[in-house]
Amino acid sequence: MPSTSTPDPAASAAPAPLPAEVAAPYGAAIPATAGRIRTHHLQAAKDNGEKFAMLTAYDQYTAQIFDEAGIEVLLVGDSASNNVLGNETSLPITLDEMIIFSRAVTAGANRAMVVADLPFGSYEQSPGQAIASSVRLMKEGLVHAVKMEGGAYYAPTVRALTQAGIPVMAHIGFTPQSEHMLGGYRVQGRGEAARAMVEDAVALSGAGAFCVLMEMVPAATAMAVEAAIAVPTVGIGAGNSTTGQVLVWQDMAGLRTGKMAKFVKQYAQLRTVLADAAKAYGDDVRMGTFPGPEHTF
Ligand code: KIV
């Protein structure tokens, strides 16, 4: 679907080449990790017709495992609300809780870019509120970028954040923080709404967002968005034309039970693996075969 919006010069201008990265010039308590994924690497992926992978992570071990597996971007999603804290939606999670999860993930990730969600209630009031919340995620959670749900209405907020030195990933399409407004989990950007979605992406990337994430969007709409903006896109349930893909790790690895969304592919059955391990341990304890002599001082 062709873009019907006015071309945005800021969004389509070719990025200026960056000077080569040098070792941290002011010293650091921990030696700078070589090869951290930066926003310009994601931009290069789009420019070169390559793809990158993103997974959620909420703790140090999954962060380490995914980082070592070569996942380029780790998302400390506010989906920690449902997937870790057991809430029904992503709405109850607080900024303080997001900071704790962010700190754990950044502790485990040497190479991946770590992006944290601005949770519901932490940015909507004003660009100033968004900056204050993002600064806490970056100073206390040590993340490298923030993700923010919402369309063109939030372009001034994205501009304020990027001018403050905070990289922003915009999140459009189905935005879980607005699920009560949207009437539940529904595909967004069908038919006439596709044009508005392209306009949202153009406005947000024009305001400085380094990437636009689309959730539950028809593949044709996602393709139109990817074509309309210069920055990379990430999809979850948005087809195969986006620069990157993201999944919630418990869905991807089969830890969660219940009906999976159509866009989920399970690459493992971790729930079965863990359940079998727990059963075997329980049996050993009850039979008195654990601990054995080799586990005893
Ligand atoms: O919080 C989250 O996990 C997300 C993904 C669904 C993209 O925003």
Description:
There is one protein chain. This protein is α/β, with parallel strands linked by helices and 297 residues long. It has two domains: 32-266, TIM Barrel (Alpha-Beta Barrel), CATH 3.20.20.60; 271-297. It contains twelve helices and eight strands. It has helices at 9-12, 39-47, 60-68, 80-83, 95-108, 127-139, 155-163, 179-182, 193-206, 219-228, 249-252, 270-287; strands at 52-56, 73-76, 113-117, 145-149, 168-173, 211-215, 233-236, 244-247. It has an eight-stranded parallel β-barrel with strand order 1-2-3-4-5-6-7-8, surrounded by seven helices. The structure holds 3-methyl-2-oxobutanoic acid. 3-methyl-2-oxobutanoic acid binds at residues 56, 75, 77-79, 117, 171, 213, 215, 236, 246, 248.
Compile the SSE list and pairings:
Layout: H1 9-12, H2 39-47, E1 52-56, H3 60-68, E2 73-76, H4 80-83, H5 95-108, E3 113-117, H6 127-139, E4 145-149, H7 155-163, E5 168-173, H8 179-182, H9 193-206, E6 211-215, H10 219-228, E7 233-236, E8 244-247, H11 249-252, H12 270-287
Parallel strand pairs: 1-2, 1-8, 2-3, 3-4, 4-5, 5-6, 6-7, 7-8
The protein binds 3-methyl-2-oxobutanoic acid.
Residues 56, 75, 77-79, 117, 171, 213, 215, 236, 246, 248 line the site of 3-methyl-2-oxobutanoic acid.
